[in-house]
Amino acid sequence: MNPLFSAALRLIPTLSRGTPVVYLLRLQSGVLYIGSTLDLEQRLDDHASGRAGRTTALDPPVALLRLEPCATFTQARQRETQLKHWTRAKKEALISGDLHTLSSLSQSRDQLKSASIHHNKYSVFATTEQTKPNDRSNSP
Most buried one in 9, 21, 74, 128, CB count within 10 A? Predict the structure, then answer.
């Protein structure tokens, strides 16, 4: 049995073929690989043998880091896409179970942009146009 699949069974002993899952692998180079499948055992065998695709053929997986079962394959694909857009720091916090760090890294980009606007010395009132102190172009 593939050691990666053995690790999966330790994480979820009731895992069976046909269960939609999202999985995170650490590759030999240290890169995090995220995928989803309905047949984890076959997919991990494909990764280990280099048949899953170019990435893992050139940089084989060394560890299964996380496994998330989903209700449907569509949900698994959506979760895979979501995780692929996360920063590495956020993925590492998820993997390690560091909920405090994960929460702090989960601040939305809109909130970050808003926070930076309010810290800009020329944007004291974010909802109104303002003239910079040395800008005389709008002066009467």
Answer: 21
Radius of gyration of the chain (CA): 22
CB 97 within 8 A of CB 104: no
For the segment 42-70, the average pLDDT, to the nearest whole number, is 95
Is the residue at 68 inside a domain?
yes
Residue 22, C-beta contacts closer than 8 angstroms, at least 6 positions apart: 34, 35, 36, 66, 67, 68, 70, 76, 79, 80, 83
The type of residue at 6 is: S
Taking the C-alpha atoms of residue 21 and residue 44, their distance in angstroms, rounded to an integer, is 12
| pTM assigned to the model | 0.75
CATH assignment of the domain containing 48: 3.40.1440
In the chain, the number of structural domains is 1
* φ, ψ at 72 (rounded to 5°): -135, 160
Domain that holds residue 21: 3-119
